[in-house]
Amino acid sequence: MDKKQNLRGMKTTNQPIISFNGVSLGYGKKIVLNDLNFDILSNDFLGIIGPNGAGKTTLLKGILGLLKPTSGTITARDPHIKFGYVVQRQFVDQVFPLTAREIVSMGRYRHIKLGRGLRKGDWDHVNHALEIAGVSSVACQTYRSLSGGQKQRVLIARALASEANILILDEPTNDMDIKGETQIMELIKNIHAKQRVTVVIVSHLLHNIINYVQRLACVTRDTFLVQSIEEATTGHYLSEVFDSPIKVGEITGKKVVISNGSTD
Amino acid sequence: MDLLIEIFSERFIQVGLAASLILGGVCAYLGVFLILKRIVFVGAALSQMAAVGVVVGHVIGHRIGLNLESLAFLFSILGVLFFWLPVSAGSITKESIIGYTYIFASALSIIIIAKDPMAEAENIDLFSGNILFVSGFDLFLISLISSLIIIVHIIFRKEFVFVSFDPTTAQTLKIPARLYDFLIYLTIGIAISVGIRSAGMLFIFSSLIIPALIGMSLFRRLFWIFLASVISIWIASFVGIVLSYTFDMPTGPTISAINAIMFLCCLLVKRFLIRGT
After folding, report:
1. Cβ distance B52 to B113 under 8 Å?
2. Which residues contact A61 (CB under 8 A, 6 or more apart)?
3. Which residues in chain A (69-98) have CB-CB distances under 8 A to chain B?
4. CATH of the domain at B19
């Protein structure tokens, strides 16, 4: 194997793997995001933040190829790209009668021919993904019986089981308590470090991701800018993005976000 | 026992039972998708669309060279396309459009029946059907098309479950979610159009809904839900045909009523026995 490739076949150096060149995204005649120019790098840990309705999910759809650009080009620079999408937990049917293992096994479907079931190798991937996500012990339980954090882990495990090399997570910590938020973010951080996958995470919970991501893409109705986390986490810049007074401080080495005088 | 032997030695009962087991079984299986996808009303509206096809067939079918089954099929497919396509009109929801279609199709079929003496005479059959009058050819047709539906669902089983559960993620894995979604709708529409004339709207719609409810009330795993749904309609069909023969009751409504009572029993058993232990 090429030393510059990781186990999942992707280049490990910080080279562009997806490039947006003058891309506009929208629905019909309505343009939501205009003239996007940025790269997603191999082994990137990119956070996408912005106020509600700014176009974060639209951008995600563009990255995933679910939404074609109205102008410009999105170029995949690596032939080995495989997306692992972690959908918002709320968008998944909570009462569908499937076990955690059955849901994770869906990640293997793109590798299996029609009418065929999973083979031993596929189940090995499923079991490994369940283990990485820390949900092996609840694999045989129904999805509906799991806690919010466990459900999120199952969805992450499904993305891992697909042998994805780019994890795309849409609001993975929504509706979680502070402990749950931290546990999920730590899991994503570990996956990024140990599995060496590129991670793109969308969140409107600023405090949640600034201590984890390497780069931050800030989406507003008028602007789009990708910066290193150090550049992006200045109070002045974030105040502009969210159109609200924001300060960024540090407590025991961790960044904290204070909005309008109260902790965000 | 003698009574059962007497009943099931009749040729028309054998054919009727076979038709209700095949049609009911297929509808019970498909009904699980209807319930899980939360598109129950689509089943009702498609049944009504197929019924319009049947009554239109009565009135003008012979003039345009199409039989009842072809027109029921045609109208069902139109309904499938209409419900599957992302149709919306501003703030009007898809549910409202389905409800509207159901009402419009119902009104249309009643008006057409009222204006056609021949169709009016068969009006009651359209709703309650008479599965005991199924001909050998009808049974052949029902078996053939049901087999095709089952084959499609065996081939695409895992994909159908995936796109019903989480279509967006399926799309990101290069699984054509919209196409599979259409196939689910299509198989439901075909099953309805095949069964509507021989078994009646009530039998078809109740077979789509009640067995799935029974399965879901008893089990939390998909495989067992499918199995319990199919077995429940088989039991209801068997008991319903015996009661219908013995007490001279309409067969389709009797099967539906038995199935409905079975669902109530399941709820009661679950409420008082399983939770009580």
Report:
1. no
2. A25, A67
3. 83, 85, 87, 91-93, 96-98
4. 1.10.3470.10
Q: What is the DSSP letter of A111?
A: G
The tens digit of pLDDT for each residue in B17-50 reads 999 999 999 999 999 999 999 888 888 899 888 8
**Cβ separation of A109 and B175 shorter than 8 Å?**
yes
Model confidence pLDDT, tens digit, residues B123-165: 556 777 788 888 899 899 999 999 999 999 999 999 999 999 9
10 Å CB burial of residue B40 (0-12, 13-18, 19+) is middle
Range of the domain at B269: 2-274
Q: Where does residue B191 fall: left (phi above 0), alpha (psi -120 to 50 degrees), or beta otherwise?
A: alpha
| Nearest neighbour of B175 by CB, restricted to A64, A66, A110 | A110
Dihedral angle computed from the Cα positions of residues B160, B165, B167 and B169, in that order, rounded to the nearest 10 degrees: -110
Look-up of token digits 């998944």: A92
From residue B97, alpha-carbon distances to B74, B93, B164 in Å are 20, 7, 21
Tokens of B206: 């109740």
Q: What is the CA radius of gyration of chain A?
A: 19
Where do the domains of chain A lie, and which CATH numbers do they carry?
1-82+165-228 (3.40.50.300), 95-162 (no CATH)
